[in-house]
Amino acid sequence: MADTVGVTVMFTDLVDSTGIATRLGADEAERLRLTHFTLLRAAIGDHGGIEVKNLGDGFMAAFPSSAAALDAAVAIEHAVFRHGATNPEPLAVRIGIAAGDCTVDADDYFGEPVVIAARLCARADAGEILVPDHLRHLVPRGRFAFTPIGPTDLKGIPEPVVVAALDWEPPDATAHARVLGVLDRLAGDA
After folding, report:
1. Could you tell me if 79 and 43 are in contact, meaning their C-beta atoms sit under 8 angstroms apart?
2. How far is 42 from 12, CA to CA, in rounded Å?
3. Tens digits of per-residue pLDDT, 91-132?
4. What is the β-pairing status of strands 161-167 and 59-63?
5. Spatial separation of the C-alpha atoms in residues 114 and 96, rounded to whole Å
6. 8-19 residue pLDDT tens
7. Which end of the chain is more exposed for a tag (fewer CB within 10 A), N or C?
8. DSSP state, 102?
9. Which residues of 113-143 are buried (b: 16+ CB within 10 A; e: fewer)?
10. What is the CA radius of gyration of the chain?
11. Residue 144 to residues 53, 102, 139, 156, 174: CA-CA distances in angstroms?
12. How remote is the C-alpha of 32 from its chain's centroid?
């Protein structure tokens, strides 16, 4: 029998994974994908999350609290930036997070928060963490900063969702400058 639980769901996506595979070749792209997964798994686990499923170039993860999910998202972005500062092929990750009641069946989560998190991840730009605006009321006041984006139509959701971006700072200036160059390159390829 399926249970209903309150949970915060996160989706991640490696930006330009197909381009990375084309540029690097299959073996090197696989090595980089495994490095990417190591970075994500560490951040998710360090913040009390569980990996629900591997999506090929990202994860679906679940967290017992919204603050833990937001902390993990920032940790992921920091790890990816640090990696990019010292590697010839930097990575970029987009993240979507949503919270609410989900049905749990066979170790998987189902429900509107899952759909919203997946759709927000797909809408996010490289290095961006998107959340429904109401999520900011679920975390301690002043602990996180958000930039309002506004009502956004998401496939499968009957009404527009008011969206915000979680603000976060790069871990250091070197990584920041290098990854900004990569993001500019990716924007030019789009």
Report:
1. yes
2. 14
3. 899 999 999 999 998 888 899 999 999 999 999 999 999 999
4. unpaired
5. 10
6. 999 999 988 888
7. N
8. E
9. bbbbbbbbbebbebbbbbbbbebbebbeeee
10. 16
11. 27, 24, 8, 28, 24
12. 18
Q: How far apart are CA 79 and CA 40, in angstroms?
A: 8
Give the pLDDT of residue 49. Answer: 96
How long is the chain?
Answer: 190
- Token pair of 93 as six digits: 């990750």
Banded pLDDT at 155 (limits 50, 70, 90): very high
CB atoms within 10 A of CB 162: 13
State both tokens at 3. Answer: 């249970």
